[in-house]
Design goal:
heterodimer; A: 125 residues; alpha/beta; Immunoglobulin-like; 33% strand; globular; B: 168 residues; mainly alpha; 5 helices
Chain lengths: 125, 168
């Protein structure tokens, strides 16, 4: 009986392993390589103020300033990071051009410009 | 009244032309007082105004200046410096009392205008003081660095205040 259970468990594990590998392979095929880039918030400015990236880039915003900031889509209605305290980060994937500002300091503005970056397994940069 | 360092005080019979000499302890006190004064103005605006732009600006002033005080406090604690009252910080406090009394007499749009006009003038005065008095006289490198790091925030506050001022 014990031998049967071990055999069944072993077979089940093998199947699970195969399924996992298959899913992983499919995901690798479909998923674009993750491009990443960074915008620093420093001295009351987004640096760079205009960031040009391939489509699908994950942009990491890092607050290196003395005070809190946020990253809010220009109209103020589409998306916002919420308040970022000094040294906190927030990231977002960009598939289209986006203008944004800091709603806490409305004079601070930035833009992510997306080009047609390749959506391939070997990356687009 | 906006206390502007290096300019004549209207009540001074013999205005001094020389900038006052400050120690690091005194500079730290001036820094804390200058930030606290703007927090107090913001609290007044949050109590008296219903204008969205004014309320947003006041909230930012309160948050930022609290943040700066926290950083300044952490630094002076680290340096073992005790902020020390002095003529410059006293002049700031005297000016703030007068300004607060003036703001208390205003309501509605008149208050909004008086508040934001004062914010523009106050930030100009504080920027000038930080640039021309506090940074040059700070002897500790970290204190000088913090003062330099605060300047862009003060300049952004001034631009923000001017933007609100134009919209009123």
């Amino acid at each position: 009986m014990v031998r049967v259970i071990v055999l069944v468990l072993g077979f089940w594990t093998m199947l699970g392993g195969c399924k996992g590998n298959s899913d992983e392979y499919r995901e690798l095929e479909l998923r674009p390589t993750l491009n990443t880039d960074t915008v620093e918030i420093l001295q009351m400015a987004f640096k760079p103020a205009i960031l040009k990236v391939p489509r699908g880039t994950l942009v990491v915003f890092v607050n290196r300033d003395l005070v809190d900031h946020d990253i809010t889509e220009e109209s103020g209605t589409s998306w916002s990071s919420g308040v970022l305290k000094p040294q906190q980060t927030w990231s977002e994937t960009f598939d289209q051009n986006e203008d944004y500002f800091c709603s806490l300091h409305v004079v601070m503005k930035g833009r992510v410009e997306v080009d047609g970056g390749r959506m391939t397994v070997d990356g687009g940069r | 009244m906006i206390p502007v360092f290096g300019q004549e005080h209207p009540h001074d019979e013999h205005p001094s032309q020389e900038p006052p000499k400050l120690t690091d302890s005194e500079i730290a006190h001036v820094g804390v007082v200058a930030n606290q004064i703007d927090i107090n103005y913001a609290a007044l605006a949050q109590k008296k105004s219903k204008n969205k732009e004014i309320l947003n600006f006041a909230e930012t002033m309160s948050r930022d200046h609290h943040g700066v005080i926290e950083q300044a406090t952490a630094l002076v604690t680290k340096l073992g410096v005790t902020p020390q009252e002095n003529a410059v910080s006293q002049s700031l406090l005297d000016g703030a009392e007068e300004t607060k009394a003036m703001l208390m007499t205003k309501n509605g749009k008149a208050f909004d205008k008086a508040y934001i006009d004062n914010e523009v003038a106050y930030h100009k005065a504080v920027i000038s003081a930080v640039q021309d008095l506090l940074i040059p006289q700070a002897s500790n490198g970290e204190l000088k660095g913090l003062l330099e790091a605060i300047l862009p925030a003060l300049e952004a506050h001034l631009k923000h205040a001017e933007m609100v001022q134009q919209k009123l």
